[in-house]
Design goal:
By secondary structure, the protein is mainly α. It is built from ten helices and three strands; from the N terminus they run H-E-H-H-E-E-H-H-H-H-H-H-H. It has a three-stranded antiparallel β-sheet. Helix 1 crosses helix 3, helix 5 runs antiparallel to helix 6 and helix 9 packs antiparallel against helix 10.
């Protein structure tokens, strides 16, 4: 047998732990620069020393946690320079991926983009009037799904992986804006509709302009 049941169980535990820590980093329950001590994390989230260390290793590769020499782990910082850098890299990745998707995407891809846009509009309408934590998570997932649908036809698993990484790194800033009432929902709706139209029209220049505005809106706040 290539994989034992024990290894499978360990992998499942790590996935659950990683999901919990990602959520708490995104919602600010675990604060920027906060030290992450293994024993304290185990008391709070469960798991073994090994599974928690593996969880922190995974989150460090995603840029959500930093490993410091001789000092263990801490939540990645969240300064204005961090925000600016994350969003700059995120836009550069998404720009290349979206351009490729517009060039390569078929009718089925267009349908998936339209469906993701529809789901996002429903999630945004709910989040604008009822921004509790559950609604926020559903809204955040709809944001991710629409963003992913736009680049899904780029025919590059590495670009898609980079998109996921930097989209997730910008997650806590996006959620903070939503919870603090600092999102302009009307402007978002106009940008998203314009982006959908430009993509379906295969208007690359207009799509990239609107994509840049959407990403920069997170930086401005």
């Amino acid at each position: 047998m290539l994989f034992s049941s024990k290894n499978s169980d360990d992998s499942t535990i790590v996935e659950l732990l990683a999901s919990s820590l990602r959520r708490d980093i995104a919602f600010g329950t675990l604060l920027p620069d906060q030290k992450l001590k293994i024993n304290e994390l185990r008391t709070r989230y469960g798991g073994s020393n090994h599974s928690m260390r593996e969880t922190l290793r995974i989150l460090s590769t995603e840029g959500l946690v930093e490993a410091t020499a001789q000092r263990g782990f801490r939540v990645t910082s969240a300064t204005e320079d961090d925000v600016r850098d994350i969003l700059m890299v995120r836009f550069e990745v998404e720009k290349v991926a979206l351009s490729r998707s517009i060039a390569l995407g078929d009718v089925a891809w267009e349908g998936r983009v339209m469906a993701a846009h529809h789901a996002l509009q429903k999630a945004e309408a709910q989040a604008a009037t009822n921004p509790d934590d559950l609604v926020a998570l559903e809204w955040d997932e709809a944001c991710r799904a629409f963003s992913y649908s736009l680049i899904a036809a780029c025919d590059s698993p590495r670009l898609i992986d980079l998109h996921r990484k930097f989209f997730d790194q910008s997650r806590r800033f996006r959620l903070a804006q939503m919870r603090e009432g600092r999102l302009d929902w009307d402007s978002r709706k106009v940008r998203q509709q314009g982006l959908l139209t430009a993509v379906l029209d295969r208007n690359e220049a207009a799509a990239l302009t609107l994509l840049k505005r959407d990403v920069e809106a997170e930086l401005r706040h």
